[in-house]
């Protein structure tokens, strides 16, 4: 995966601000509407590796889906990792957004202007 990609939900204001900032900086990026173009478990694992985070770190635990699944009760350890990744792939609404994969192979969760600028600088 080369180049910059941003996973967005167009209804999310933080996603729209991130896109606005990327455009203002003239960044070359592709948009992925991850609720329609749902990432596979393998893609989620690859992004987690790039972020240096665990699946529970990028899970929106306040979402209705999370409450339904009882995610707050799930263990957060190596043996539960696959269960979390599977939940994110099956319920993409649970994925924190926006996620920006940078040109250098890293990624950031672009919820602040600083984080988006961080991705741009890589």
UniProtKB/TrEMBL annotation:
PANTHER family: ARSENATE REDUCTASE. It holds the Pfam family ArsC. Keywords: Oxidoreductase. Belongs to the ArsC family. This is Arsenate reductase family protein. It comes from Streptomyces aquilus. One of its GO terms (molecular function) is arsenate reductase (glutaredoxin) activity. InterPro entries: Arsenate_reductase, Arsenate_reductase-like, Thioredoxin-like_sf. It comes from the Bacteria.
